[in-house]
Specification:
It is globular, with a radius of gyration of 15 Å. A 6-stranded mixed sheet has the order 3-2-4-5-6-7. A two-stranded parallel sheet has the order 1-8. With 157 residues, the chain is an alpha/beta fold. The chain contains 4 helices and 8 strands. It has a single domain, classed as 3-Layer(aba) Sandwich (Cytidine Deaminase, domain 2), CATH 3.40.140.10. The model has no long low-confidence stretch (mean pLDDT 96).
Length: 157
């Protein structure tokens, strides 16, 4: 199988997402990265998983320590604003508090709900945060050959 292309991530964007992942601990932090020229604009999003779990624990069995969920209205507003500004979505990121950086079955189902990416060309970044400190970061990109998201190397830009 062909290796996925390396994902180029600026030190500034990585530092910003790292700080957000650490400040969100012990809950999952989440958000987007949009391309503005050669820059990646990081947009943190509220994780509403705790609220969903409180309101409907049978449907939303996990809380924000092990899951994230974007408010659909806010998500669409952010996506529309950046699309209008011609700043394409390039990254969806989230953290795994006290767990490794991996693309879980839940992550995969949300990212490719019908067997193909919901957002083609978007890389998913997963930060491992232990005791409030980021200890690992992995990128996952869609592989047509594998028919799923696979780990992609990260190159500092």
């Amino acid at each position: 199988m062909a290796e996925p292309s390396p994902f180029k991530l600026s030190l500034a964007a990585r530092a910003q997402m790292t700080a957000l992942a650490e400040s969100g601990y012990p809950r999952e932090a989440c958000g987007f990265g949009f391309a503005r020229g050669s820059e990646l604009v990081v947009v943190p999003m509220e994780n509403i998983q705790d609220r969903l779990h409180r309101e409907d624990p049978k449907t939303y069995t996990r809380d924000a320590r092990t899951a994230y969920f974007f408010d659909p209205t806010e998500m669409q507003r952010v996506l529309d604003r950046h699309e209008k500004a011609r700043e394409p979505l390039r990254v969806i990121y989230h953290s795994h508090p006290d767990h490794d950086s991996y693309f879980s079955e839940t992550d995969s189902a949300a990212a490719a709900p019908f067997g193909e990416p919901a957002y083609p060309g978007v890389v998913h970044l997963v930060f491992s945060v232990r005791k409030g400190q980021v200890v690992d970061l992995k990128a996952f990109d869609w592989s047509d050959e594998a028919g799923k998201f696979v780990e992609a190397p990260i190159v500092a830009q």
